[in-house]
Known about the structure:
By secondary structure, the protein is mainly β. The protein has three helices and 14 strands. A hairpin with a 5-residue loop joins strand 13 (249-257) and strand 14.
Amino acid sequence: MSTSTPPxxxxxxxAVASTLGADGxxxxxxxxxxxxxxxxxxxxxxxxxxxxxxLDEAATSAPDHPDPLSVSVNYLKPPTPGxxxxxxxxxxxxxxxxxxxxxLSQAGGAVAxxxxxxxxxxxxxDAEHTPHAAPAVPGPEEGHDLAESIPAGAVPIVDRYEVxxxxxxxxxxxxxxxxxxxxVWVRPEDGRRxxxxxxAAIVDGYPPVTADLGLLASATVQLTVxxxxxxxTDWALMHVTTRHVIDGYHDEDVELWDREGxxxxxxxxxxxxx
Length: 274
């Protein structure tokens, strides 16, 4: 009697799971469930796809490095729902870190290129310098549920996360504040705990804060995430800001903190406004 492996219990894990094919690549079905208002796949979702593939491959090629340290993705063109493949190459395995590259392809053409650095949090040093603490805001239980301001099903990526804010942002009230910054609590909508893969996806899970400049349509060109510890938290506190909008491009910086006020991830992306 044959047996099959049951699907992962959480939505994110099902959406990024891949299987190793005879061609050496990892194959999966991309879903539209993580699409943005542009009708294209969210950059954090694409990043999580390639990160999961690298972690699965590195379990063999770099077994002493189980933890992501950094992920940098260049988005070449928008992927579409349907079959896709991730080709993973281990570039170097060192004593402290290993470096891997991954190319996400569809129909024979590359749609994203990533460089991933792995290591082991149990073997790091103990030097510390933390110049500021997590933002001082009420807990998620006391925040406004932003889903109440956006109709369910209107934007797929919005339905993937639960977001709580100390106040309803101006752009959602039709009154952009002119300040491209936000501090919100966020978690996967199905209650999945936040580990490294979820944290790496979440940094791109909030609408672009350029919305408070009246500029909502944004597409990621390049995204880099630095993981700062091995996360395990129910909610993450996100502080996101845009510092410069120049010639139609904007940056976006994110700090992600766990429930205990510890920094778990930082990211920076460059995006184009359309």
